Amino acid sequence: MTGTTKVRRVGNAKPPTRASKLLQNRWAGIAGLLIALLAPFVNASGYALSVMTSAAIFVMLAAGLNIVVGYCGLLDLGYVAFFAVGAYTSGVLSTRLDLPLLVTVPAVIVVTVIAGIIIGAPTLRLRSDYLAIVTLGFGEIIRITANNLDVTGGPSGIYGIPHLTDSPVVFYYVTVVVVSLAVLGAARLGRSRLGRAWRFVREDEDAAEAMGVHTYRVKLAAYIAGAVWGGLAGVLFAAQLSAISPTSFTFLQSALVLMAVVLGGMGSIPGVVIGAVVISILPEILRDLADYRFFIFGVLLIAVMILRPQGLWPARSKEVS
Amino acid sequence: MSLLSVEDLRLSFGGLLAIDGLTFSVGEAEIVSVIGPNGAGKTSAFNCVTGFYRPTSGRITLRGKDLPGLRPSAIAGLGVARTFQNLRLFGELSVLDNVRAGSHLWLKQSVFDALLHTPRYRRSERECTEQAHHWLDFVGLSGDRYSEARNLPYGEQRLTEIARALARRPDLLLLDEPAAGLNHGEKAEMLDLIRRIQALGVAIVLIEHDMGLVMEVSERVVVLNFGKEIADGRPEDVRRNPAVIEAYLGSDAHA
């Protein structure tokens, strides 16, 4: 029995070693950023730039969905809804009101926050499978609405969205900077009081509630953050293509983003970045295989899931700040 | 005025009366045990106090403030912390992160602090980590604090859960069978720990089956049987109460 005069017994309460920290987020992030910045020096063809820009936008989507699915454990099958809301908001405002794309960004943030609340407030009272089904429904509702409204151009969508810049190389670098900030922001949120609360909810909602975490509010915050990330990715998407239509926002897109998060490692920022790059670039690399490429793509994904079920770069429990 | 007061608490699930008129109170820094056979309604009473169940009737007040109808998180905000009968740790998070959960309510940090890593963010994170270590030291956890909580031995998981509750800095701590599954030595340490928690000025309500521990540590004991309160008094009185002996040993037993 221990006495009342308790001595500090710290045990092996050592933080992870330097070497393992080296592998952790900061250095991985700098390495990833360098690769992204240097890539155009290897190949700056129009095709390569467009693939890399799309990959970067996809990384931003995955970083946003990772907040919802990875951190907070809310299975969202309709994430592309927010991507669509962002793309359409900036598309409509820039073409109808002749606004520069940059000016639409505050409006996009406001609209996606509202969309996050409208979709999240009723659905987040549900748990697990029910939540997945309802988000799936909302994803389709947004797409079908865009398909039928006049203001969104119906099935043919919106054309002539102004580019942010005329040079694809400059746009690529703008995208890389924006996406890097988004990834950094998501990582920092994940290491904050709110980010810990998300993980507590993911692990055990009742225990989190008992520790004073207002679980409903915290889940809504995750949903809104995910919505804003997705919406801003939508602005980049609209700027890149200058034309958007409902066919870009199908369930397949939601499924692919989710796949990037799961493949990379839920809750792990380096993981989801790698996952998103793999998911967006692999089909392009396999292009030579023509009709077989989606078959090979599928086989590769299954192989990864079997060999590394926890993801390519799983989150560590040692989330030390 | 007592810290926690429960008056004529009733709880029914459909036709089943889980709690049928429970009345007790807990003073500041007092240790009260709630005992009774399995299924007597002890944990249900805990769930009513902490807001996980809404009582069918009766009053529960903390320093005069009504608790029923509040969210569990709001009740935690008033200074109530609890542990769970079958351990509810955040299994995939580190031991340290589990205890950091206790800091959630008093950590001052906005989303913008987190995004910009302001000095306030750094200060609050440092403080939160120091506090977590402090409470792990307090409960005497010697294992690896950076490993996943689910990988700890059972006894250390119990201690981690208590450290997490203490990091909330509660005025009232509800412990649901803290000594269940512990060996003899660990039980002795738990007894010591409960006393040291009380010495911090924290009131404790204890559900426990280990009568040695209950009689040793409690100032008052409340006995439940089939949802009904059959005794409330000092441990030595409750021990001799015929109704209690009957509930525990059957009607033919002699004291």
UniProtKB/TrEMBL annotation, chain A:
The chain crosses the membrane at residues 54-87, 99-121, 170-189, 220-243, 255-282, 294-313. PANTHER family: HIGH-AFFINITY BRANCHED-CHAIN AMINO ACID TRANSPORT PROTEIN BRAE, HIGH-AFFINITY BRANCHED-CHAIN AMINO ACID TRANSPORT SYSTEM PERMEASE. It comes from Streptosporangium canum. The keyword Hydrolase does not apply. Keywords: Cell membrane, Membrane, Transmembrane, Transmembrane helix. This is Branched-chain amino acid transport system permease protein. It is found in: Cell membrane. It is a multi-pass membrane protein. InterPro entries: ABC_transp_permease (IPR001851), LivM-like (IPR043428). Its main location: membrane. One of its GO terms (molecular function) is branched-chain amino acid transmembrane transporter activity. GO terms for cellular component: plasma membrane.
TrEMBL record, chain B:
The keyword Transport applies. GO terms for cellular component: plasma membrane. Gene3D superfamilies: P-loop containing nucleotide triphosphate hydrolases. Residues 4-251 form the ABC transporter domain. One of its GO terms (molecular function) is L-valine transmembrane transporter activity. SMART domains: AAA. It comes from the Bacteria. It holds the Pfam family BCA_ABC_TP_C. GO terms for biological process: D-alanine transmembrane transport; L-alanine transport; L-isoleucine import across plasma membrane; L-valine import across plasma membrane. Keywords: ATP-binding, Nucleotide-binding, Transport. The keyword DNA damage does not apply. CDD domains: ABC_Mj1267_LivG_branched (cd03219). PANTHER family: AMINO ACID ABC TRANSPORTER ATP-BINDING PROTEIN (PTHR45772:SF7), CONSERVED COMPONENT OF ABC TRANSPORTER FOR NATURAL AMINO ACIDS-RELATED (PTHR45772). This is Branched-chain amino acid transport system ATP-binding protein. It comes from Streptosporangium canum.
